[in-house]
């Protein structure tokens, strides 16, 4: 992740543990779970159908249109993944990322 994590709270003497994982994006020591966004699983069926449609097209037909549809879907997947990893939510008050 780019940026530092700044915590603006009063000192209580308590320690918090954060665990980054695969099944859950984030798990805290007080059992707060942040689910992992599953970009591929959401659009996999649409990707498969567009890819199949493109492979069945002949040159000269609407092949270019099918190729552009598939390209746009792939671009949306990449953008969604990039956006979520660079600006992930902070569900706790007082914690900011910069």
Describe this structure in words.
This protein is α+β, with helices and mostly antiparallel strands. The mean pLDDT is 76. The longest helix has 24 residues, at 63-86. The protein has two helices and five strands; from the N terminus they run ββββααβ. Strand 2 and strand 3 (24-28) form a beta hairpin.
For the structure shown, list the relevant keywords.
2 helices, three-stranded antiparallel β-sheet, alpha+beta, 5 strands
> What is the residue-averaged pLDDT?
76
Distance between the termini: 10 Å
Query: Which spans of ≥5 residues are poorly predicted at pLDDT below 50?
Result: none
The percent range for helix content is 40-55%
Radius of gyration: 20 Å
Biggest sheet: strand arrangement: 2-3-4
Q: Shape from CA axes?
A: elongated
């Amino acid at each position: 992740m780019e940026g530092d994590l700044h915590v603006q709270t009063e000192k209580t003497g308590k320690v918090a543990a954060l665990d980054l994982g695969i099944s859950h994006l984030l798990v805290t020591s007080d059992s707060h779970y942040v689910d992992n966004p599953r970009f591929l699983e959401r659009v996999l069926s649409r990707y498969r159908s567009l890819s199949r449609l493109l492979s069945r097209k002949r040159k000269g037909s609407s092949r270019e249109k099918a190729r552009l549809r598939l390209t746009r879907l792939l671009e949306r997947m990449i953008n969604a993944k990039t956006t979520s990893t660079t600006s992930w939510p902070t569900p706790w008050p007082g914690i900011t990322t910069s």
